[in-house]
Design goal:
386 residues; alpha+beta; 22% helix; four-stranded antiparallel β-sheet; 20 strands
Amino acid sequence: MIASLAREGGLASTLWAGPEFVPRAMKRGDVPVQGTVRKKPVSLGLGFVGSEFSYSIDMGLPPPSDSAFSLDPAIKGEFVWAGPIARPAAMLVERRGPLVRSRGDDGQWQIVHERMAAFDSMLSQVADPRRTPELLALREQIRSWRFYDHFRTDAAAPARMPQIGTHTPILGHDGADLAAALQTIREIGDPQALDAAVNDAFPGAAVTVEGRDGRFETVMRQHGLLRPLKAVELSDGTLRYLLWIAALLSPRPPELLVLNEPETSLHPDLLPALGRLIGQASAARKQLSDRRRQSQLRPPIGAEPRPFAAQRRFADQRLHRMKVQVLVGERMHERRALLKLRPRRGGLQRVPALEHRGAVQPGPDAGVGALVQTHRTVAAAREQQP
């Protein structure tokens, strides 16, 4: 974690760049934006909440020293508790400075480590199956998560080149083992889903893997062409779609799969097929999150998406739950409410929600599945507000 923060610019780059306290007059624009003397300590808190275990970590500035690593953030505290709510009675393992302690079989605290380095996490240092089984289970859970931020599709992308192939149930973060991952899906995964995903986006097309001297290469046959196309000949969007197929149809689905803007470089005609693929994959996973910009990317019914809208106000960005309509038969039923926004000086503000209870008829382009009606609902709210 320390190295990841350093690559992103250090602890300073993660902190709020605006004033510590923002009065209402400053938000309205009546007074200029200006800084004040910091009163609170510099701190970066990260964590997640789970149904079984939850975890949080607090990092801050290290004490002044002559060390060459004086810019490394120091871990001030780590906490693991049972369930989603942090309560003293639910706390299982806690770290404060260099001291780590955990609950024993009798429910009493026992010291596990007394000299934990400020740059070490207790997840990596004291995860023991006997003394701290919670840390071990939590560490393995986090390691199973997958994050796909960017796939290279340029002319020299590793996914375009023949690669040594072995069983690959999990696609690599750079997509270099695409051919091996597709072949693994075909042999020990769901080959029908693989063929259906390809045919959904490219009717009449088929993807195969050619092996020669232990090296695998992705080959695509398309309707109307007299010869198959190799990966080096595919367009950026086509190759990226195949990469998403290999990531989403993994024979070993993770508990959490995060996709960052999966619609990048895809032709608009491929977005519905990608949405259906994401919905199919989410049905086999406990949690799937995709950060997207295209409203055409709509997962189908059964995905149970939990969409959020990013609201930018006074230079910060907040997430708000959006409305989801689910197609049941031929009618749409509202599942969640949307915080509707309208422009105002200094950003956006909430406006009263429109009442759309009960069933409404879907539009002609609704498709099959749950529709994330983002821009349409917001536009309707703006039109009906004074």
